[in-house]
Amino acid sequence: MSVTQPKGFRAAGVEAGIRTGERPDLALVVNDGPQHAAAGVFTRNKVKAAPVLWSEQVLATGRLRAVVLNAGNANACTGPEGFQTAHATAEKAAELLECGAVEVAVCSTGLIGSQLPRDNVLGGVAAAHAALGADAAAGLAAATAVLTTDTVPKEAGHADPAGWSIGGFTKGAGMIAPSMATMLTVVTTDAVLDAPALDAALRSAVRVSFDRLDIDGCMSTNDTVLLLASGASGVEPDPEAFTAALRDLCKDLARQMQADAEGVTKRITVRVAGAATEDEAVTVARTVARDSLVKTALFGSDPNWGRIAAAVGYSDAQVDPDRIDVTINGVQLCRGGVAAADRSAADLKGADVLVEIGLGLGDGAAEILTTDLSHGYVEENSAYSS
Amino acid sequence: MSVTQPKGFRAAGVEAGIRTGERPDLALVVNDGPQHAAAGVFTRNKVKAAPVLWSEQVLATGRLRAVVLNAGNANACTGPEGFQTAHATAEKAAELLECGAVEVAVCSTGLIGSQLPRDNVLGGVAAAHAALGADAAAGLAAATAVLTTDTVPKEAGHADPAGWSIGGFTKGAGMIAPSMATMLTVVTTDAVLDAPALDAALRSAVRVSFDRLDIDGCMSTNDTVLLLASGASGVEPDPEAFTAALRDLCKDLARQMQADAEGVTKRITVRVAGAATEDEAVTVARTVARDSLVKTALFGSDPNWGRIAAAVGYSDAQVDPDRIDVTINGVQLCRGGVAAADRSAADLKGADVLVEIGLGLGDGAAEILTTDLSHGYVEENSAYSS
Predict the structure, then answer these.
(1) Interface test with B, best of A77, A222, A325 (most B CBs within 10 A)
(2) Which of B38, B49, B251, B264 is the most exposed place for a label (fewest CB within 10 A)?
(3) Phi, psi angles (nearest 5°) of residue B188
(4) CB-nearest partner of A300 from B174, B291, B382
(5) Which of residues 258-317 of A touch B (CB under 8 A)?
(6) Is beta strand A364-371 parallel, antiparallel or unpaired with respect to A267-275?
(7) Pair type for strands A184-189 and A224-229
(8) Residue in B closest to A111 by C-alpha
(9) Cα separation, B136 vs B375, whole angstroms
């Protein structure tokens, strides 16, 4: 249930003094091998944080010895000085681990637009290196040190009967949108896999997990998902079994982010079927998931399917207004574009809301996870600089 | 300052019993000629309300004798029965005005997905016809009868020294997004203009006024802007002068909608310059104007330019992260993609916020009007079924 669950990994989380308050804010994850294959997926935002620029470069080698992560400062919009800080961070870890800086990825999350306190970061790397452990407590310490507005650490794991395992943590509570959430995710495995196999599995898993989580439509500058393989189990996994397990683990982590999102009072699944293609199903589901009027209605436990139909109608997908069906928590409220039942028939008192939309056009289906738009979201994001 | 300001128009607003509470909810605007040229622009939502389907059809003739508008029910997602109600509404007005139903446009706003009480609407049309007046009070009564969550009626007028005038009203407070707001707008003029000239002037004006207002990114099923010309002044206006006056009037009405938007505490102008094209400037400005994290930060009077830079970065426009400048209320906080001043230097205590974004790529410029995302917006839209 953590990045230290697979054999060959150590982790640590320490207080480096990057953010105010006595909270851990720097994590280190080390792959002790024997192999060091790795893959990564990054934000598609054109404004990329310095650690993203650094880590994308590093991942070109398909090889990682370690990852340094910090919370409290995104090191984004920080220019050459910010990039030098990311580089210096990797250099420091490399020196301690006796490897090259090019084998160390760096991830940051927090406020955009101010310089990271470099000395604090470098001191934190040294402290984390001294604190490295291979047990579950060490994995949890790392998962805890990267949290920002998250209220709980988010870990997941899978032990395969074939003898290999996967573990991971993630963070992210706001600025969560397509092309990944504002999130940092580290997944480890002791399976024997090379970098191209890891890359293929990771892209396949991210496409239907993190990329289908959309809390507030705001794409971050820092999104990073890293997958590190130590090969320490000595087992070459069945590629399909590995990809399936990785996908399930990423979905598990995505669901944990949904449940801990800023201001969440409803965990909403928007499921679209009958679209012309899967991509169009994603487009419709995402448009509904982002619609402020749908999100505020669900916050108010109001099964306002008319707002859902309106959002379907302005999506960039093919839609026939006379074929739209809307079912909320199992009660069909709209059939063929008109009312099918009194809206009060749908019960939204619980925390989970399933919105099912039928388009009646084809076989395309997809679902997006989102949350409601609540007073808590407004409060957190108007009062907290991040 | 109203639709009755131009010669040749009468208007009325009455209580038809369409919505609960004793409030006027049906308006009638009549063009007494001698000419009856007209133009209209409608929502681009694929889910169009019955009155939009009806009025689009009617406008194909370039001619309108009257417009019936109601609040309290959108007559959207109401199928053939809803369309018959829109048709019957036009028939009723036509009977009273001794014209054809095809000369009467219909507009509705309110809850989506329930049938309009047809008898109440037809009774309301008769009552409004009996109450028609040509004075400012009659124009105000019509402007008042179409309000939903709006708190004030919104009217504008222009008397041209050349002898013609324009007047108009609008409504709209939420579900306000590109391709027009959830809004109904009626503009009248006594200038002598034919339908093609009106159409060209209206499209040109809407493109830079209502289409540049984006309160919550939610495109309505009912958006309608109608322009009616009576020719009663006997004056053929200079086409450019007329278009300019119409554009200014539409901008005035759009600004009134911004100032009265649901939950507004800040009136925000997002102005983009240096984009590759005007369209790309609109794209960037709209992306920033819709970003929930930018909107909540401004609600909190926090000049969080990092969130603005992140939104610029995920817009669908060409962006060079190292050329982005951000200035808030006159204080440059970001230059070339990095901090240029302490954010506290920008004062956001007032109700007006000007966000200026420079992209340094070309001559494309545009601005979008929006508002903050406040507790009031969440409250209104979670508690009110509309």
Answers:
(1) A77
(2) B251
(3) -120, 155
(4) B382
(5) 290-293, 296-297, 299-300, 302, 304-307, 309-314
(6) antiparallel
(7) parallel
(8) B306
(9) 36
Residues of chain A contacting residue B174, judged by C-beta atoms under 8 Å apart: 293
CATH 3.60.70.12 spans which residues of chain A? 9-259
- Is A337 within 8 Å of chain B by CB? yes
B313 closest CB neighbour out of A221, A292, A336? A221
Nearest residue of chain B to residue A299 (CA atoms): B382
Fold of B9-256: L-amino peptidase D-ALA esterase/amidase (3.60.70)
Which three-class secondary structure state does DSSP give residue A274? strand
Which residues of B are designated catalytic?
Answer: 182
Q: Are the CB atoms for A263 and A175 separated by under 8 Å?
A: no
Residue A246 belongs to what H/E stretch?
helix A239-259
Just give the CATH number of A267-383.
3.10.20.340
Q: How far is CA A108 from CA A15, A25, A127, A188, A251, in A?
A: 15, 10, 18, 19, 22
Cα separation, B265 vs B258, whole angstroms: 10
Closest-CA residue in chain B for A215? Answer: B292
> Would the CB atoms of B293 and A379 count as touching at under 8 Å?
no
The packing angle between helices B278-290 and B305-314, to 10°, is 130
CA B94/CA B104 separation, integer angstroms:
7
Could you tell me if A374 lies within 8 Å of chain B, comparing CB atoms?
yes
A182 is catalytic: yes
CB pairs under 8 A between A and B: 207
Give the helix ranges, DSSP H, for B132-184: 136-145
**What is the distance between the alpha carbons of residues B343 and B191, in angstroms, rounded to a whole number?**
51
CB A176 within 8 A of CB A213: yes
Interface membership of A47 toward B (CB under 8 Å): yes
Sheet of A104-111, strand order: A9-14, A26-31, A66-73, A104-111
A348 part of contact set with chain B, CB < 8 Å: no
CA distances from B82 to A115, A310, B373 (A): 59, 16, 34
Output the tens digit of pLDDT for each of chain A's 386 residues: 899 999 999 999 999 999 887 899 999 999 999 999 999 888 888 888 999 999 999 999 999 999 999 998 999 889 999 999 999 999 999 999 999 999 999 999 888 888 999 999 999 999 999 999 999 999 999 999 998 878 889 888 999 999 999 998 888 776 665 444 467 888 999 999 999 999 999 999 988 888 888 877 777 888 888 899 999 999 999 999 999 999 999 999 888 888 888 888 999 999 999 999 999 999 999 999 989 889 999 998 999 998 899 899 889 999 998 999 999 999 999 999 999 998 889 999 999 999 999 999 999 999 999 999 888 888 888 875 54
Which one-letter amino acid corresponds to residue B154? K
From B44, which residue of chain A is nearest by alpha-carbon distance? A314
User: B161 exposed, middle or buried (CB, 10 Å; 0-12, 13-18, 19+)?
Assistant: exposed
- Give backbone dihedrals phi and psi of A142, rounded to 5 degrees, phi first: -65, -45
- Tell me which chain B residues have a C-beta less than 8 angstroms from the C-beta of A296: 377-378, 381-382
Instruction: CATH 3.10.20.340 in chain B: give the residue spans.
Output: 267-383
ipTM surpasses 0.95: no
Closest C-alpha to B308, from B323, B283, B289, B331? B289
Q: Give domain A9-259's CATH architecture.
A: 4-Layer Sandwich (3.60)
Whose CA is closest to B75, among A159, A149, A223, A338? A338
